[in-house]
Amino acid sequence: MSVPSPPTLEAIRRVPKVLLHDHLDGGLRPATVVELADEVGYGGLPTTDADKLATWFRGGAHSGSLVRYLETFSHTVGVMQTPGALARVARECAEDLAADGVVYAEVRFAPELHVERGLALDAVIEAVIDGFRAGSAGTGLKIRALLTAMRHAARSLEIAEAAVRWRDRGVVGFDIAGAEAGYPPTRHLDAFQYMQRANGHYTIHAGEAFGLPSIWEALQWCNADRLGHGVRVTDDITVDTDANAILGQLANYVRDVRVPLEMCPTSNVDTGVCASIAEHPIGLLRRLHFRVTVNTDNRLMSGVTLSSEFAALVDAFGYGWPDIRWLTVNAMKSAFIPFDQRLTLINDVIKPGFASVCGDG
């Protein structure tokens, strides 16, 4: 019997992967930012050298502050204000994910951020969907959109309505994002209730920079299907000197009902949630069998791919192919497409893809 090859970065790129938490405006190619800035007349870039610009974005991301991290998006959003720019960014996003071996992706964007030049919300959505379709054509990637509302603004119901309106045309769900402190998810309760009445799916950024109250509201008041990040659930877990974990009521609930956690390790290090990948809560939560998934968050700002995120976990926690497969199947189970489509991808794509490196199904 052949011995499986180790999960190196190159080997991880070759296996099928699933991505649930990736921001369109956080994944641009640096050269594209420069070219679009010139094309649309955006003059705010700190440099027009693509390599230096990539370094600048990563420097801002590594500040250890979520607020500072979010400030870098003013430049990517600034160049994404025309149908052509939006379609190009979406197309390149799909191409880059397909090249990294991603077979299913839900990429989120906030339509309300792309109307500075007069575009209607539907025009923004249409351009992005067209770009996804063009970029994924002929690849093994199935890519869908999540529409995000900004939690500090007041357009969440409008965005939720758009998510339902576009649900059979490439959009699979709704989300809220932005700084958590001072902007609890219950501010947008009407939007979440609308999604529930429409039998829609939604995820909520919660438990990233703010703690247990954010997670509790997202689940118990807003009934989120998934949690964006959710790392602060470990605030409700005590580990004793013998490494035994004692779960509080909220942590027990999250694990018991299998709430999917969209974890983004490198991004969390960048924003100061933890000091290193080795200290990231994903290690404990995976050991305790929470419904953990692995994601990129913002590929440009953090300088990552989904493959590199898995490779970092291999280095930090000694994960092998069974761990990577377990995390991948978790993500596919938690996707917002219909059950039969999820099952087909698991049985016909993911399991055979991992069998080729793991030696089993």
TrEMBL record:
It catalyses: adenosine + H2O + H(+) = inosine + NH4(+); 2'-deoxyadenosine + H2O + H(+) = 2'-deoxyinosine + NH4(+). Its EC number is 3.5.4.4. Keywords: Hydrolase, Metal-binding, Nucleotide metabolism, Zinc. Gene3D superfamilies: Metal-dependent hydrolases. Residues 16-351 form the Adenosine deaminase domain. Substrate binds at H23, D25, G178. Binds 1 zinc ion per subunit. It is an enzyme of class 3 (hydrolase). The active site is at E208 (proton donor). It holds the Pfam family A_deaminase. Catalyzes the hydrolytic deamination of adenosine and 2-deoxyadenosine. This is Adenosine deaminase. The gene is add.
